[in-house]
Amino acid sequence: MTTATSSRGLNFAVLRPYLARRKGLFALALAVIVAGVGLQLWIPLLLKDFIDGSLAGADVGRLAAIAVIYLSAGLVAQVLSVAAAYLGTSIGWSVANELRLDAARHVASLDLDYHSGISPGSLIERVDGDVDAVAKMFSQFAVQVVSATLLLGGIFVLTFLEHVVAGWTVVAFTAVLAGAMYLLRAVAVSATSAERGSSAELFGFIEERLSAIEDIRANGAGRFVMRRFQPVMRRYYQRSVGAWIRRSIIWTTSIGLFSAGTLVALAVGSWLVLRGSVTLGVAFLLITYMAKLEDPVMEVTDQMQEVQKAAAGLGRLGELFAEQPTVPRRGERRLPSGPLKVQFDHVDFTYGAEPVLTDITFELAAGRHLGLLGRTGSGKSTIAKLISRFYDASGGRICLGDVPIVEVAEPSLRSRVAVITQDVQLFEGTVKDNVTMFAGGVPDRAIVAALEEIGMGIWLDGLTEGIDTRLDSGTTSLSSGEAQLVALARAYLLDPGIVILDEPSSRIDPATEAVLAAALDRLLRNRTAVIIAHRLETVGRVDELLILDGGSVIEHGSRDELMANPDSAFGGLLQATREGMLYEEVDL
Amino acid sequence: MNPIPVVWRISTIWKAMFWVNVLLWAAFHVLPAALGLLVGRIFDRLEAGDRAVVGTALLLYLGVIVARLTTFQVSILAYARYWHRVVLLLRRNMLGWLMEAPGARRLPMSTGAAVSTFREDVDQMAEYVENWMDAVGLVAFAASTLAVVWSISPELTLWLVGPLAIAAITTQILSGRVQRRREALRTTTESVTGFIGDFFTAIHSVKATGRTEPMLERLEHLNAGRQRAALADTFLGQIIRSMHRNMAAIAIGVVLLAGAGAVADGSITIGELTTLLFYIPLLTSYMAWGGEMLAQHARGRVAVERMMRLMVDATPAQLTDRTPLGLFDSTDRNPAAPGRPNPLMRLDVIGLTHRHPGSGQGIEDVSFAIERGSFTVVTGRIGSGKTTLIRTLLGLLPMDDGAIHWNGQEVEDPSTFLVPPRSAYTPQVPRLVSATLRANITMGRRLEEGALGEAVDLARLTRDLPQLEAGLDTVVGTRGARLSGGQLQRSAAARMFATDADLLVFDDLSSALDVRTEAELWERLFALRDVTCLVVSHRRPALRRADQILLMSDGRLADSGTLDELLARSPEMRALWELA
What we know:
The structure holds 2 protein chains of 2 kinds. By secondary structure, chain A is of the alpha/beta class. Chain A is 63% helix and 11% strand. Chain A has 20 helices and 12 strands. In chain A, strands 6-9-10-3-11-12 form a 6-stranded mixed β-sheet. Chain A has a 4-stranded antiparallel β-sheet with strand order 2-1-4-5, with helices on one face. In chain A, a hairpin with a 2-residue loop joins β11 (544-549) and β12. The two termini of chain A are 27 Å apart. Chain B is of the alpha/beta class. Chain B contains 18 helices and 10 strands. In chain B, strands 6-7-8-3-9-10 form a 6-stranded mixed β-sheet, with helices on both faces. In chain B, strands 2-1-4-5 form a 4-stranded antiparallel β-sheet. The longest helix of chain B has 53 residues, at 212-264. Chain B is elongated, with a radius of gyration of 34 Å. Classes of the chains: A alpha/beta, B alpha/beta. At the A-B interface, α2, α3, α5, α6 and α7 of A face α2, α3, α4, α5 and α6 of B.
């Protein structure tokens, strides 16, 4: 339901404000670079003077003075090169972090539909991988390309000043180097992807076997695993060795080219000296400058590859930022305190062109508990999402506590309507972080009280550091039942007027289920509740039932009345259960 | 743990290959020394205007370059083969040990961390081996160039030692830090990406509770930590880089200063000066590299320690086990199926104890016996130790006390003894691998189609097959992700039935099968086969059928007996029965 306007090509607009905010830093980095490049160009000139001076019979004092200047310039150059790199990285990271935060904020604001259509893994790719590639690229690219260009330009100018043939030699060699690097890029890319493919298979195999280690060992399949590993190793060996050898073409070529560069400089320098056109010092200068071409040429070609990667990332980020949430956030009214009444007044909801809910009208008095029943796709969860305003109705009106839901301010809605989802995600952090979801300003006492209220008091007492004990992510240290309890504690902390509960459909052992049921009873006391029921037992907890079929209400009434009436749809369900259709089989 | 003996053992496995590599790299590193001499010669003769000698020297220079390139290319060919053998040997040995070695074998770390040991620590170790090869070339280069410098001027050689030593020592010290900084960068990066993943996985509840802003603040906090780590890492890295590149400038400055007099009075010729200027950058970067090699030693130590930690109780000899890798031998050696000596008559578990390291919780002093053909159900509340009991029995968790007797004989290592054809196991959350369903069920055993069909049928998996695109030949996706939770467990049950083991151990089938189907499964299983079952369950059909129920409570065996006995005397059992 979110609209995406896909952008083609490079879209620097995304990045411009982040870079513009750092004009001062960029200027400083530029100054450091210019100074550093200047020194790098000047230092070889000192050597030239030293050599020519010694040949011209200069005195020791003058030679020693050159040496002292040389030494100090070398030290300053060290400091400048570290400073330039540090500044570049620092700019890159701060841009990346700011962009990442904004991207995360934007993604979080998008509809749930967007999230259900995209895996968290690919969001990590966007919000982490693409952001990094883009931000670092454009901040470091600036720093490196500027310094490389300055250095190259400087070398050209200085060698031309010495002798025109020397100048042309350097320019021609740079062109050859750049051309070769450009051609070799394709080799590098294919070698890298071959290598990645072969190691992906190897480590994929290992990773899966390690996570299945108990299954494998307890079923005596270790020998068979090792047998299957054989062909995997063989393929890895062949492909990786092949990739290395292909990559060695690049290494050999670049080593060859740089050695050739020295040789060319040596030959051209010798020729010029023998013709009497330049001094020996200039010949040495030519060799030194030729060797200095290596780094800038390599850097620029490396950066060209990064640019391509970043351009792709930039395109994807542009698309990400073009996604817009469909539910406007404009209400200003606050919901009243205490339990809230829920009213649906001729509510329709269409998803795309498909009607999901048609003409839903019901009223749930404050403090009453409603069970939603119906098959998968009957619209139960849509009703829940309308009450928590993850969607807006296409027609009709929804009121909470007599306030139309579209007029309610977002913070008021979020603190008064609690949603407990089926799957509970725990975070890497402390118990406290997990209950508050990192919100600051919640007193420890309130957190402990919430945990005690939902029956986790004993569990909490067993923890060495109380609510500051760290939990591992991935539910390793909490069972799924306990994770559910944490979700109840989260809701408890909000003190909501309405609780929407999507009951977990996975099985929890009976004893924990009893604890959960008790905790839920305490949470729901004196609150309005809407429960998406997956099991008939849950129905025992509610006052009213609403049975949906194909997006329409087929039955709504008090549980006791419906139960007593064998002709009701609910009565039919109940009958089926008694006849031995087991509850797991009934798709409620 | 000292990594040198490990390198030594590795070097003896493919001995010839190792030494060929050493010699080739040594040649590659030493050749530039000749180039420096040639440059000096050229400059000396240029001063004299000697065209012929300059021309010859230039040709010789070309010859040395070509020789060096050829050496390089040949070295790479040799080294690519050597490197990949070393990394595969280490990986094969670690995986083999984890999969097959006796003893309770749980990963001592998360799967992710274990994979990174397989990946990075092994690479680190191979780099360390490479270091030892390069060390020879490095020493040869340093010795030959310093000899030349000495012949030019012993005094200047001494002046050079200072900057060179500084380059080596600082790089060594800083490189050690680099490793720690890099580690910090890696963990902070993981915490950022992990958090982003968790954040968006939980997006529904985050939005519903209006906690988006706190979550973003948390992200900002993690971001800042990562930035600090990254900057610290870059700063150090740049200093080392500048050691490699710019230390030369300082060394040259020192030599010029010290040698100014000698150059002025002509006791050092212009050619000798150029040779020095040619050597010094090479020497400083080689020295910095040498410093890094020394730092590598610390990294090699960490890598060996991590690999040994992953292998828990193995010795370094097992890490470097020299069984051939079979890289060029594609014959498929199918391990012989073991016979079935000593079929189960009676299993005695005496005082079985396992305490979780850390919390100290676990199971304490659990004793029971299982007769052939019987049906034993383990039940109890969550956290009462049901799964721990089963896993300790099967040797998946270490047994801290107690004994297991198979037909009256003590089992020394349950982890390698209680496997097919003696026993088989279906865990609560089974793991499949990304292969076909058939391969997952047979686990690589040769199995007749009839036996496979029976296993599939028994596990009630038959009705799932038409829903899968290619039936038994459907590829189940990474870790079986393309199957539903129930299908996953039914496949694991089929995998267990396919082993035709005497003792079948199930950890809770309730998410795979509904109550009625589960009851049918037990009926058919006992009708078809002569099996013994040990089952974790809290469901009535299983409890009703049980010959004995083991009622676990707080890690102890609270009571055992038939359902009627327990219902009569145990309030805990009555409570569980009511809830079932």
